[in-house]
Amino acid sequence: MHNPGHRFQAQDRFADGAQYIAGRLTKGTSGRMHAVVDPATGEEVYTYELASTVDVDAAVAAAREAFPGWAGATPGERSDALYRFAAVLADRAEEFARAESLQCGKPLKLTREFDVPGTIDNIAFFAGAARHLQGQSAGEYSGDHTSYVRREPIGVVGSIAPWNYPLQMAAWKILPAIAAGNTIVLKPAELTPLTSLLFAEAATAAGIPDGVINIVTGAGRDAGEHLVGHPDVAMTSFTGSTAVGKRVAEIATSTVKRLHLELGGKAPFVVFDDADLDAAVNGAVAGSLINSGQDCTAATRAYVQRPLYEEFVSRTAALMASVRLGDPFASGTDLGPLISHAQRDRVAGFVDRARGYARVVTGGEIPEELKEGAYYRPTLVADAPQDSEIVQSEIFGPVLVVLPFDSDDEGIRLANDTPYGLAASAWSRDVYRANRATREIKAGCVWVNDHIPIISEMPHGGYKASGFGKDMSAYSFEEYTQIKHVMFDNTAVARKDWHRTIFGDRP
Ligand code: NAD
């Protein structure tokens, strides 16, 4: 299928273990082994021992020890370290791309052109932003005092990441946290630890002090919950499913922690009848299939105004069927497998159940020639009722559902009719129509005449059941810093005016 020498040799590279604590790789101590599987072939490519709660304690202790020095570094020193970090990653870009493609099954063109350069850009953005962290300037608001606001790091951040974009999710969690002077313990998904480990190693090579970034690769139920509930962890930042996010929120709330949740999505893609149909069809296929549809912002529900509906369905189905599935390491491949055979079967289950109430226009099957891998054909489902499972639930696979609408009011109402609110797009040549959609669709991001692009300067985060708080951009510092009011007395008198409330008129 491919030359294994050109892939990523995970077993050799991480022979020392899948935990990164206080600047070095170590083995987990849970006694439970876990395998990273290449989803394109089903082969185990790396076996490691999962982190125990004792390993989590060690990582939190390392982060706690590193905190005073890192928090006390000047913004300029932290910024310099982050610029060096970006340079190390740029030097190692090909290794990162290969590791990410191996563990996720992403085509190399995606990891080379999107995951890795996006991460380098994110580091460079936070290297700059680290020098612009400010509190509000001073003022004499009471007349007798000078007040100012300090913006301070919170302490040790405990973060949990999903498997769909392991490198980018690690970067989105780690960078704003450390740029603001926090230290961090990140738990990647058990299926995909490799690029989080490479990321932490690169940080050390760039001179970021030991203990500032720690990685514990363990199971959600023990290592994950232990990290969230840990008394020395000041904040929890979680990206993953809404179901697990609720559990994480319960634990974080019961230990009174700052909480940032980036959860599931079910993005609508609303095509008004004056839209450029070519652009909408291309956008729907690329926007629903990116990363094999395992993208929290992927287009999942296309609502198409009645005059364009039938043509949209037939052209989108034809374009979807032309997308080439194959070996992620081969240059002719457009789409790789899903993350695992279990995820593929879960996706197939949604489509199979939908056959009872909707029309599978294309796809809906496991390709026979690629059946050792976790592949699933790009799938278009039409005519499903709005309240059906396939329209309402997050599938997280290469499946787009398309439904018609009549009035603009109806299109916007249907777009808002799921529990989620992460991302959406509106397609129209009429600026007033499009602008109305951007105002009325309840989502953390609304694109107009595009779907998917993200940029380091702009925030990413959900409305409704998609969570709260922002990743990327300067807005992320609102999550990773706390605000302190400092108030100086300006009168220099021992008995202040307001002491009357205690002492009355006594001198
Ligand atoms: P998941 O919720 O199953 O797992 C996410 C992480 O949580 C993993 O590291 C897992 O080990 C850990 N975990 C599991 N149970 C836990 C527990 N009880 N306590 C603590 N941690 C626990 O999600 P997934 O399947 O890895 O990823 C897919 C999901 O992530 C989708 O729902 C997708 O929409 C979401 N996602 C959201 C965003 C966003 O920015 N909103 C980005 C990427 C992915």
TrEMBL record:
It comes from the Bacteria. Signal peptide: none annotated. InterPro entries: Ald_DH/histidinol_DH, Ald_DH_C, Ald_DH_CS_CYS, Ald_DH_CS_GLU, Ald_DH_N, Aldehyde_DH_dom, Aminobutyraldehyde_DH. Residues 28-486 form the Aldehyde dehydrogenase domain. Keywords: Oxidoreductase. Coiled coil: none annotated. GO terms for molecular function: oxidoreductase activity, acting on the aldehyde or oxo group of donors, NAD or NADP as acceptor. SUPFAM superfamilies: ALDH-like (SSF53720). Pfam families: Aldedh. The keyword Oxidoreductase applies. The active site is at E262. Belongs to the aldehyde dehydrogenase family. This is Gamma-aminobutyraldehyde dehydrogenase. It comes from Streptomyces olivochromogenes. The lineage of its organism: Bacteria, Bacillati, Actinomycetota, Actinomycetes, Kitasatosporales.
